[in-house]
Every structure is written in structure tokens, then in C-alpha cells.
Amino acid sequence: MASRVVTRVLRPPHWNPLQSISNLSSLADYGDLLATLSRHRINVRYRQSLLGGLWAFLQPLAMMLVFTVVFSRLARVPSEGVPYAPFAYAGILPWTFFAAAVTNGTMSLVSHAQLVTKVYFPREILPISYVIAAGVDLLIGSSVLVLLLIYFRIGLTMSIVLVVPVVAVLGMFALACALVLAALQVRLRDVGVGLPVVLQLWMFASPVLYPLAVVPVAWRTAFTLNPMTGFIEGFRRAVLDMPFDVYSFAVAAAVTVVFLPLAYVAFKHAEATMADVV
């Protein structure tokens, strides 16, 4: 009797959002790997640079100095009664965190192709580690913001506690963007090429260097729908003790609550074939 030949066809899993969400529990089993990779990101980022970790605040500081001259001295952009230097820096700092997390998170799978193709682990650990590293840079860069507040005699109040939820939700939004873009970058390298241009345009479309109040009323609704508006305005107003814009932050938080689970489900669905195409 001839033996039966069984043919098994391997294909990506069926679209099962519930199964993807349940994979979150497996992340706890790889907590040591996440901690190790995050420390590695922080340690090697400036290892061969002369100034080392100083770059974490020199970059936003340099941007603040340039934009202060251009927007405050030349363009005369208002800053809602606050000196323009701390006003601009309080916008640049969260933006720099977001841009670094998204840019590095997008390239995380491609830049670690050998690891992805040889060892199994939840691939989302790579983008998450870059978001954590960007958060450390944000913490370092905040030291300059403290010095600016002292120099311009801007006192801290209890509103500073609002920075914690603003940064936490901003980190989740940056992770959602990084997950989607990292999955796309594996299959379409143009994503990494075009991302700097998109981020540059996105920065000028967000109130990083100008207050939301200068935006024409007809455009303000569209600006508020931009999640970065709520995050930047929320961070700036919490630090500079300005009236907190609850509405814009609520919009940003709502977008994040919807976007992050969808991004994670899409990432986990794409994960099945990442090692084959990366």
C-alpha cells in the first residue's frame, strides 16, 4: 500500500484581532529582553561620539536658539505672554521625543534583520525599545528646560503633574505610529526614505513654534484633530503654568486609544511573514 503524502501549506494567520490582543500577555515573558535592548539603545547611541549624552539636549537646544531668532526676532511670532525661548523649547522637546521614537522605531526591524530572521521573539519589542530610549533623551533634555524656567523666573506649579499623562499618552501614540510604519518598512523601503519629509511637514503643521491661538479660526478645528496639537499644547501649558487645553488633549488621547490597538493588531498580522521579506 502506497503511503499518503501530506502536504502542509504555510500561510499568514487569519485576521484575528482578539488573538493579536491576547499576544500582549506574552510580552511579560520577554521583559528581560526588552530591558536589555532598551539599555543597549541608550548605551550605544552616543558611545563613539565626543559629547556622548550631551547630544540629548544639545539638539533641541540648538533648534530652540535658531527658531528663537527666526520666529521671535524676525517674524515676531507671539508666545502668549511667555518668553519665546522657553515657549519654543517646551514645544520642541516633546516633538523631538516623538520624531526620534517614530524614526528609529520605523527602522528597527530592518536594522535588526539578522536578529529577526534567526531568533523568535515578539517583534514589537524592537520598536518599544526605541520609544523607551527616546523617553530617556526626553528626560535628559528636560534639564535644559528647568534651567530656562529658572533663568526666566517661571515658577513651577501643581500643573506640572499633568506632564506625566501627556508624555505617557504621547509615547503610546509614537509607538502606534512606529508599529505601523515598521511593518510597512519591511516590505516597502520608501517608507524610511519619505518619513523625514513627512515629519518635517508635520512639525510645521503642529503648534511647536507658534501658539494655537494664532491659527485662523476656520482652520483651528483641523489643527485640533492633529493629535500632536494636543500633546504639544498639553506639555507646554503644563510646564509653563498656562491654562490647560483639555479639549485638544482629549482629542489626542481619544485618537491614541483607538489607533494603538489597531496598530498592534495590524503589526501582529504582518509579523508572520516579516522574517521572509525583511
Topology:
Layout: H1 17-22, H2 24-27, H3 31-44, H4 55-74, H5 84-111, H6 113-118, H7 125-151, H8 163-187, H9 190-204, H10 217-225, H11 227-239, H12 246-271, H13 274-277
Helix pairs in contact: 3-7, 4-5, 4-7, 5-7, 5-8, 5-9, 5-11, 7-8, 8-11, 8-12, 11-12
Overview of the molecule:
- The protein has one domain.
- The chain is an all-alpha fold.
- The N and C termini lie far apart (44 Å).
- The radius of gyration is 21 Å and the shape is globular.
Gross morphology: globular
- Helix content estimate: over 70%
Distance between the termini: 44 Å
- Percent range for β-strand residues: under 5%
Count the beta strands: 0
Main sheet characteristics? none
- Detail the poorly predicted runs: none
Number of helical elements:
13
Instruction: Summarize the helix and strand pattern as letters.
Output: HHHHHHHHHHHHH
Tally of domains? 1
SS-based structural class?
mainly alpha
Mean pLDDT: 85
Taking Cα atoms only, what radius of gyration do you get, to the nearest Å? 21 Å
Summarize the structure.
By secondary structure, the chain is mostly helical. The protein is built from 13 helices and no strands.
Structural descriptors:
13 helices; mainly alpha
